[in-house]
Records
---
Amino acid sequence: MVELVPESPAPSPRTLRMGTWRLHPAIVMVLGRLIRGLVVLWLLSIMTFALVQALPGSPVDVLAGPYSDAATRERMYQDLGLDRPLVLQYFAWLGEVVQGNFGTSLYTGLPVSELVIDRLGPTLQLAVAATAISLLWGVPLGALAALNRGGIVDRITRAGTFLGLATPVFVLGVVLVLAATTWAPSWPTLRYMPFSQDPVGNLKNIILPALALGLPLGSTVCRYMRTSMLDVYEHDYIRTALATGSTRFGATMRHGLRNASAPVVTIAGLQMAGLIGEAVLVENVFAIPGIGQLTVNSLQQQDYAVAQACLLLLGAIYVVMNFAVDLTYPLLDPKVGGKR
C-alpha cells in the first residue's frame, strides 16, 4: 500500500531560510534596508569624492599660495598624494573615512571631524525643532480639515497650505527677522548662543529659524494628513464604528489617526532629513553656525577636506533617517512587518 504523505506548506517568499532556522520577515526587511543603506552610502562617497575633485583649484593652491615656484608645488603634490591616480586617492580617502579620520582643515588647521561635530549640534537642533513645529500644527489641522471636508475650515486650510508651500524658506526667514526687529527689538535674531552657555537664549535663537523651516513643512504634513484621513474614512472599520453609534470625531480619534499616520510619518521623516540640507539658507539668514554654513564656507575657501566631510555627512543623515522611517513603519502598520 502506498502511503500518501501530505506536502509541507511552502515557505513564505518573505521568510529567509538559514539551515533549519527561519528569520522573521521583519528581520529580513531590516537586513535588506541596512544593506541597501550601506550601498547608498558607498555610492554617495564616490559621488562626493568625484564632485569635490571636479571643483576648480586644489589644496596645493591654498597651502602654497600664489607666489610659490613649480618645484615647491610639485613636492607638495607628492607629499599630499595628489600625484597618484584618482582611484588610489579615493580608496586611500575612503579607508581613512571608515576609521573616522576626515583629515585636517587647510583653513583652520583643526581636525575636520572636530569642526563637523561642533557645527552639527545647532543644525540637528534646528531640524528637530522645525519638524516638531510642522507636526504640531500640520497633523491636527489636516485631521480637522478632513473631518470638515468641504466646509469653511477645510477651504481655509487648503488655501493656507498652498501659501505655505509657495513661500521660499529664505523669504519667510527674512520676513520673520524684519517682524522681530520691528515688534520685539530685544529679540536675538542675528546672534547665536550655545545651549550649554545659555539655554533660554539658545531657545530664543532657535524659535524663529525653526518657524521659517517648520511652517512650509507643516503645509506638506497637513495636506498628507488630510488626504490620508479621507482615505481612512472609506474603510469598513470606520463605517462599522459609525454604525454602532460612535460619532465621526470619536471614530477619528479611536481608529482613524493611527491608521492615517503612517504616510505622514514617512513624509515627516524624509522632510526632516531634507531640512538638514535646506538649513543652509536659514543658517545664513539667522547667523547660526551650523553644518550648512560650514559647507558653504569650506567650498568658498577651497577647504575640500571639510567640504567632503560635510557633503558625506548630509547624505548619511538622509540615509539614516530613511532607515529609521522604515523601522517605524511596521509599528504603525503591522502588515508591513509581516504580522497578520
Note: The beta strands are 16-18, 21-23.
---
Amino acid sequence: MWPDRRIIDLFAIELPIIQAPMAGVQVSALTIAVSEAGGLGSLPCALLSHEQARTELQIIRQRTSKPFNVNFFCHKPPADDPAREAKWIERLAPYRRELGVEQATIPMGRGTFDEKLCAIVEEFRPPVVSFHFGLPEKPLLERVKATGARVIASATTVAEARWLEARGVDAIIAQGAEAGGHRGIFLSEDIASQPGTFALVPQVVDAVRVPVIAAGGIGDARGIAAAFMLGAAAVQIGTAYMLTPEATTSAIHRAALKQARDDQTVLTNVFTGRPARGIVNRIIRELGPMNSDAPEFPNATNAALPLRLKAEAAGSGEFTWLWSGQAPRFARAMPAGELTRALAAEAIAKLRA
C-alpha cells in the first residue's frame, strides 16, 4: 500500500504520519488521539516541568497501548549576558507602558534534556524519543538508546542530517523552511540559506542511509504523496492539527490560523531568541522579524510573556507567538483521529492514481 514501509515497521505503527510535537498548543490528548488512529502521536516536553512530563506520560500509558513519541529540546543553556538582556527589556518598555504591565525579569528558561528528563525516559520507556536542536551529550543519548527507544531528530540541512546519522539516530526528520514553530537548526545560525522541504528532502534521502521523515508545509494528501515521491518514508505534520479539539490552541491562535494567508508567516526570534515560524503580528512588524538585540534562546521569552498575557486578556493576539507553518489553511477543525485517518486515506488514493 505505502511505497516505503521503513518508518511504519521501525515504529510499529499503521500509518506513516507523525504528529509534530507542538509545545504550548498540546499535551497528551492530541498524542493519544493520533496514536490510537494508527499514526505516531508526539508529546512535547519543552514547556513541561519534570512533574508535568511525568503526569502526561502516565496519562498516555493509561489511555493507549499504541506507540508514541516524546520530544525534548537539547539546546545549550545561554551564557549570562546582563547588558543584552537589560537592553532588550528597555526595547520593550514602550509596550509595557502602553499595556500597563510590570517590568519583566530575565531569565526564564525552557528545559533542555538533562539527567532528570533522562530518568523519566528510563522510567516510562517511550517507544520513540525525538530531539530538537541536535542531540544530547553522548552519555545521555546512550542511556536513552539503552531503554530500547527509537531515536529521531530534526535536520534543516544535509550537513545536519549527516551529523545526526553519524551519531546513531534511527531516522531523520528533514525540516524544510516552511515548517511552523522553532527551526531545528543547530550547526549554523544562518536561516537565510535554509532550504525548503522540496529541496531538502531528496538531498537528505540521497545523503543518508536511515529513513527520512519529511516535515514543513505538509498538511494534505498532495503533500504526503509528494513527500513519498521525494524519497521520504513518512511525514511529520503539525499545523494541520492545531484546530483539532484535542489541541490546546487558544481561541486567539485558532482565529489567527483560520484567517492567515500563505504569505503571512515569517521566521522570527523576538519571542524566544531563536528563529521560529509564526503568523505576523504587531510586535513582529515593529521589532522583527529577526532582531539582533533579542537575548539568546530561551531568555527572550520572559520579557515578552507579560505583554502577551495582558494583550490576550483584552482579546488581542498582537503580542502572542502564533506559531504556524506556511500552509495554515490546511488546518482542519475535526477530531485528530479522524484527521489522521483521512489524511492517510486521501494520500493513498493520490499515490494509487
Note: The chain has two domains: 6-75+110-249+331-352, 86-109+261-323.
